[in-house]
Amino acid sequence: MKKRSLIIFLLALAAVGGGTYAAWRSYGSPADAPKFKLAKAESGPLTAAVSATGTLNPVVSVQVGSQVSGQIKEILVDFNSPVKSGQLIARLDPETYEHRVRQAQADVDAARAGQGVQQAEVSRARANLSNAQRDYERKKTLVEKNFISPAERDTAQNTLDAARASLASAEAQVKNGEAVVRQREAQLAAARVDLERTSIKAPVDGIVVKRSIEPGQTVAASLQAPELFVIAKNLTDMQVETSIDEADVGRVRLGQKASFTVDAFAGRHFEGEVRQVRKAATVVSNVVTYTVVISAANPDLTLLPGMTANVRIITAQKDKALKVPNAALRYRPSGAADEKKSTGTTASAVSPAPTPAAAPANSGGAGSGGLAQLRDRLVADLKLDTDQQSKVDAIFEAMRDKFRAARELPDAEKTRAQERNRAEIREKIAAILTPEQKKRYDELASESQAARAGGGAGRIWIVGEDGKAKPVEVRLGLTDGSMTEIVSGDVRVGQEVIVGQQAAAKASGMPGPRLF
After folding, report:
1. Does the model's pTM come out above 0.85?
2. Phi, psi of 340 (to 5 degrees)
């Protein structure tokens, strides 16, 4: 009897224990592990671009002003009027300048009349000189025959000298009169030019895009000519002047393809290319930008001056690249913040994959291993001959100490020093290449620069065999803002990478079953 009671008690205890365990499993377990959001690494085209906004302007825009002051008497053109070079487009009141011309003409006539009087004086002085010369000759002969005293001969000599001086004075007066005539003629010509300038003419063929005057308005031209009109020479050839941030301007090169849109024609894309990168910097609120000019064909005159253009400059492009979403690069699992900080510091000290464009970008890249890899890639990609290889070795040997010295500089100076070293290496290497090799070298340099702009070293996370996030170190290349190229790393096409995670499911809060 006691044995049976013991068995029943043990069975009941086992049942209660099993129920308690089941309830704990069902209601008392910790929150479910987080579920990852995954995306696949893809292979496809990738384009790196620089985006900015700018203003549409005519390639040639001429401001038409006035060089003389006066009242606007007549305006012969209006906004959007086509004009030809030399065409009369406005006229100032010419009355004042007409009087100046008449006054200058009168001054010229008076100077010429005075010149005539002076010419007559020259003729009279010549006659007096001739008479004095004959008188002197006669008295000289009479003195020799002792018919007159030498004193009379001396008087005749003095008269002759005075006549010569009078002639010289009269001739000088004639030259002075000629100079006065030329002076008065120049004043007359200037007055006529001013009178001509009262007629405002178009300096080029084009279209009037701005008119700043009205009839009856007074124009005052002093130190600066007032603006009357703005004429666009050719609206079929426009340009976009856009401001590029200093962080992106290094990737912009002449001839790069660009596209832009304007708000007036939503959905329509206009094509162009980089025509000019201006070296003058613009600083606004400590932000440094550079003006880049983009060509913009406008054969149908759709685009208008002053429109705001949203520009996209293609800086690099690949037809086939292994790429992952940018979200995969931003993702960090919980608890990985400290690890990220420490590994980030380590990654910055490790030299990236060397490129032909420059010595390795980071401080460690100046070591013998980085330069050796760079040399091998130059030899393979550019097919360098033996002589060129020896010259490259000499260049690297000469630059090795400079890279080591740059590592010891403060961070602010280190970047500039490394950039100078890279530029020096590029210049020296380019000097030993053939034209074909140099062309290929420039292509590799562009790819290298775009790769450095893409972010350098990075980290993505995949789901490991244990179901937890596993880090994978990668080397980054081009980026288009949403996808980034994976240059190297343990990632393959179609592999799933973590781009985020769903919040862990919270416990329901439902109380466990009451056992008693």
Report:
1. no
2. -60, -40
